[in-house]
Design a protein that fits this description.
The complex is a heterotrimer of chains A (285), B (214) and C (349).
Chain A (H helix, E strand, L loop, with lengths): L1 E2 L33 E5 L4 E7 L1 E10 L8 H24 L7 E5 L4 E5 L4 E2 H10 L7 H24 L2 E2 L8 E4 L17 H9 L4 E4 L6 E2 L3 H18 L4 H12 L5 H14 L8
Antiparallel strand pairs in A: 2-3, 3-4, 4-6, 5-6, 7-9, 8-11, 9-10
Helix pairs in contact in A: 3-6, 5-7
Chain B lengths: L3 E4 L9 E8 L4 H9 L8 E4 L6 H16 L8 H8 L6 H8 L8 E7 L6 H11 L3 E3 L3 H7 L2 H8 L9 H8 L12 H22 L4
Helix pairs in contact in B: 2-3, 2-9, 3-4
Chain C lengths: L1 E6 L4 E8 L8 E9 L10 H23 L8 E7 L3 H18 L3 E5 H13 L5 E5 L4 E7 L2 E7 L5 H11 L8 H9 L12 E2 L2 E2 L2 H16 L14 H27 L3 E5 L6 H13 L3 E4 L2 H4 L3 H13 L27
Parallel strand pairs in C: 1-4, 4-5, 6-11, 11-12
Antiparallel strand pairs in C: 1-2, 2-3, 6-7, 7-8, 9-10
Helix pairs in contact in C: 1-2, 3-10, 4-5, 4-6, 5-7, 6-7, 7-8
The chains are: A alpha+beta (285), B alpha+beta (214), C alpha/beta (349).
Organism (chain C): Xylona heveae (strain CBS 132557 / TC161)
Keywords (chain C): Acyltransferase, Cytoplasm, Hydrolase, Metal-binding, Nucleus, Protease, Transferase, tRNA processing
InterPro entries (chain C): ATPase_NBD, Gcp-like_dom, KAE1/TsaD, Kae1_archaea_euk
Chain lengths: 285, 214, 349
């Protein structure tokens, strides 16, 4: 009679060799001073803040590291494919007038991408702040209309994204940013002057600014209603789980989406099917 | 006297320097081009026709990619200077890139880029040599100088941008000023033009970054 | 308490007896025996023949298990059987035997979800408390994490299971099915070293394998037609071993990737690999490398438990029975489709 736990199998990682961590910076950035600042570490990629060309131009560095468990040939192939796909999608979106970070530089062999730094906060953080309390200087009814307007712009932006033939693949409120309106800028070098105090206050009272979509690591080029509907479904589920009180606000997102391009209403109908099917084919667990 | 702007571009080793000098009314473009073609080692520069350059960042971006490719043994052309010219290109045709971006016999607005990897060549050294070699009026290497030189129509044609379904960014931006609560500033004509120029610039950077990807 | 478990959802017929000590403590394995139906090389196992195999072996195995355990029918508290998912006729064979025992011994029945059986046995054996579970077998490929009394499916194969892909390729190569086609692919792969280009299909948290199977079948056909093919990179000859190697490297990388995504999503660093394909040492190694890089750990059971067996059904069934669950005779059906997240995991908070 053996206890099930007699001689439990060892943790498999204990017998494996020590390898350099996959979270090291790409070699080029080891020279950088100050070193790039790590912002997020996902399963797929690491995101840093650093500069492009000169200190006055901030940028985001996305690095898809080599994965130690993959065969090196497969690893190189996947890394290259994915960073390229992301860069292409970003460039395509920007070309079509969708608000996404611009691509500055790329090294697909080394798996890194430098792109425009987007100032501002995520829609997620805004909703967290604005749903739980009314910010200083804003009255309650104004708050409602500001939020509604923001939702409308979110819906419109997602519509523009889909119209450009791109599906995001991971639409959550953390991947939507609100970039404050800046004064006229012509070239990169002059676009990041210090914001005046006036702008700062304005930003906190009004949800002005452009909605910018970020993180296209799972994006793909598609015009299928199904893919677009799943995109919306993921965003809807994200709303539901992270901002449970915002469900009626999401209706505004869908309404604005429905009016953003020809064919959007068909996608909304498809969304109903996706909802009924539930988990299969969507990404939120 | 040449006006040299020296950059230590982000992420490149500190011993690497990128020197840039901009000239108006250049008289000896053919001579300079000849030195390049004959492989005169004193003339290892990227000589660019500034009418094809939209901004300082445009040129520096090319220098950055060329240097990164050089550091990774991925040069497609002879040296890091010819590579800088090539890196401006949206496609893989090296000869084309020289024709479109490199100095030609009729060039009067000239941008010179020198990339030093070992720190052996100094800003002073570059200044001295260029002052002797280039017959033209030195202007500061800044966006204002370039703005008066840029041939936007030519650039749009080279990069195939600005046709009906491409960076019609003026059209896109206008959408934002019909928002019901007027939460976007309405852009006046001049601002719209500047925005369009910026969109053109980032579109170019994207094309340069993606060049050669299969 | 003591439970007997009958498992027959695929070609393995397993009977197990487990004891949960009254005052808690580790479960005790009183008996765990199995007999596998193997079809000839180049063929898959058909439901009809498999069911016949199960029917001929079940009485024998139950008797043997009781003898090994040194228990009698009276000592058994409940009879657990695999309700699903799996193949219809084989499932039925084991279920019929369970119903018969229930009537004969006058003991209650407990229908068990096959996947939950794998998960609970894996947790018990390895001590992994709340891992992300990769369940990979001939019939299933799921990435699972526990939340609020459900084993939630985070990612899965959208078309065929990874084990199915490997098994079918074994048929293509006409490799023996004994002891298991996947095991033989694994051994052959160890002799391969050239990585051939195969489609890699991960979409979000899900993956699919029919595309890669089609591609590898084409490569196998090409190799059969022209045995003198050489690898583009090295110029060395390509062998069937290289095909197996490439297939494993690619599909396992896909599995590790979706597991890592789930880990990042739920914020977990522990992985438990269960199911027949979980025995594969290369898969274990790759999963280990991924987890080690994240500072996490990976647990897997040996072939007694990762391959379909009766003890996991007894264990999961007894856990449910102790919370008051049982299956009335009229409800003791089987179902080919039975999603892991349909089960209310009352025995955990």
């Amino acid at each position: 009679m053996a206890a099930a736990t007699d001689n439990p199998p060892a943790d498999i990682t204990e017998n494996l060799p020590d390898l350099p961590p996959s979270t090291l910076l790409p070699p080029l950035f080891n020279n950088t001073n100050p070193p790039p600042e790590l912002l997020t570490q996902g399963a797929e990629a690491l995101l840093y803040r650093t500069t492009y060309l000169v200190p006055s131009i901030p940028c985001a560095l996305k690095h898809r590291p080599s994965k130690p468990y993959r065969h090196p040939i497969l690893d190189a192939r996947l890394t290259k494919q994915r960073i390229l796909a992301e860069a292409r999608v970003l460039a395509k979106c920007r070309r079509e007038g969708v608000n996404v970070p611009a691509v500055y530089a790329l090294d697909w062999e080394k798996g890194w991408l430098l792109m425009e730094w987007i100032e501002g906060g995520t829609v997620r953080s805004i909703l967290d702040r604005w749903l739980h309390s009314t910010p200083v200087g804003v009255d309650a009814s104004k708050r409602e209309s500001e939020l509604k307007d923001l939702m409308s712009r979110v819906g419109q932006t997602v519509g523009e994204l889909h119209r450009a033939g791109v599906v995001h693949g991971d639409l959550t409120t953390s991947n939507l940013m609100l970039k404050p309106v800046s004064t006229a800028d012509d070239t990169l070098a002059s676009s990041h002057e210090e914001e005046g105090k006036q702008h700062q206050e304005q930003r906190e009272q009004h949800l002005q600014g452009e909605v910018v979509v970020i993180d296209f690591g799972l994006a793909m080029q598609s015009v299928q209603d199904e893919d677009r509907a799943v995109d919306l479904y993921v965003l809807e589920r994200a709303f539901g789980s992270t901002h449970p009180r915002a469900e009626n606000l999401f209706q505004e997102v869908l309404r604005a989406y429905g009016e953003s391009f020809k064919g959007a209403k068909v996608v909304l109908r498809r969304l109903e099917d996706v909802r009924m099917r539930g988990r299969k084919k969507s990404m939120i667990g | 006297m040449a006006l040299i702007e020296t950059f230590h571009l982000s992420h490149l080793p500190s011993s690497y320097a990128v020197h840039a000098a901009l000239y108006r009314d250049v008289q000896n473009a053919s001579f300079l081009r000849q030195q390049l073609l004959s492989g005169n080692t004193e003339f290892e520069y990227a000589f660019l026709d500034a009418t094809s350059i939209i901004s300082t960042m445009h040129a520096l971006a090319a220098a950055f990619r060329a240097t990164n490719d050089f550091m990774n043994n991925r040069l497609r052309s002879r040296n890091v200077h010819s590579e800088t010219v090539f890196c401006l290109s949206p496609n893989n045709n090296i000869a084309d890139s020289f024709r479109r971006f490199g100095v030609n016999d009729t060039t009067t607005n000239l941008l010179v880029i020198k990339i030093c990897t070992g720190g052996e060549i100094t800003t002073d050294g570059v200044r001295t040599h260029l002052s002797r070699a280039v017959d033209g009026a030195a202007v500061p290497f800044i966006d204002e100088s370039l703005r008066s030189m840029t041939d936007l129509a030519k650039i749009k044609k080279i990069y195939k941008i600005g046709t009906s379904n491409n960076v019609g960014s003026a059209g896109k931006r206008n959408k934002s000023d019909i928002s019901p609560t007027g939460s976007q500033m309405v852009l006046n004509g001049n601002q719209a033009e500047l925005k369009e120029r910026k969109e053109l610039e980032v579109a170019i950077l994207g094309l340069m970054a993606l060049r050669g990807a299969t | 308490m003591i439970a007997i478990g009958l498992e027959g959802s695929a070609n393995k017929l397993g009977v197990g007896l487990i004891r949960h000590p009254p005052k808690g403590g580790p479960a005790q394995i009183l008996a765990n025996i199995r007999h596998t139906y193997n079809s000839p090389p180049g063929e898959g196992f058909l439901p009809k023949d498999t069911a016949k195999h199960h029917r001929s072996w079940v009485v024998n195995l139950v008797k043997q298990a009781l003898k090994e355990a040194g228990v009698s029918a009276a000592d058994v508290d409940c009879i657990c059987y695999t309700k699903g998912p799996g193949m219809g006729a084989p499932l039925q064979s084991a279920a019929i035997a369970a119903r018969m025992l229930s009537l004969l011994w006058d003991k209650p029945l407990v229908g068990v979800n096959h996947c939950v059986g794998h998960i609970e046995m894996g947790r018990e054996i390895t001590g992994a408390n709340n891992p992300v579970v990769l369940y990979v077998s001939g019939g299933n490929t799921q990435v699972i994490a526990y939340a609020e009394q459900r084993y939630r499916i985070f990612g899965e194969a959208l078309d065929i299971a990874v084990g199915n892909c490997l098994d079918r390729f074994a048929r293509t190569l006409e490799i023996p099915n004994d002891p298991a086609p996947g095991y033989n692919i694994e051994q052959l792969a160890k002799k391969g070293k050239h990585l051939l280009d195969l489609p890699y299909t991960v979409k979000g948290m899900d993956c699919s394998f029919s595309g890669i199977l089609a591609s590898i079948d084409v490569l196998a056909a090409q190799l059969k037609a022209n045995p003198n093919q050489t690898d583009a990179l090295t110029g060395e000859p390509i062998t069937a071993a290289d095909l197996c190697f490439s297939l494993q490297e690619t599909v396992f990388a896909m599995l590790v990737e979706i597991t890592e995504r789930a880990m990042a999503h739920v914020g977990s660093n522990q992985v438990l690999v269960v199911g027949g394909v979980g025995c594969n040492e290369r898969l274990q190694e790759m999963m280990g490398l991924m987890a080690k890089d994240r500072g996490g750990s990976v647990y897997a059971t040996d072939e007694r438990f990762c391959i379909d067996n009766g003890i996991m059904i007894a264990h999961a069934g007894l856990l449910a029975y102790r919370t008051g669950c049982q299956t009335a005779l009229n409800d003791s059906t089987c179902t080919q489709r039975y999603r892991t997240d349909e089960v209310l995991v009352k025995w955990r908070d």
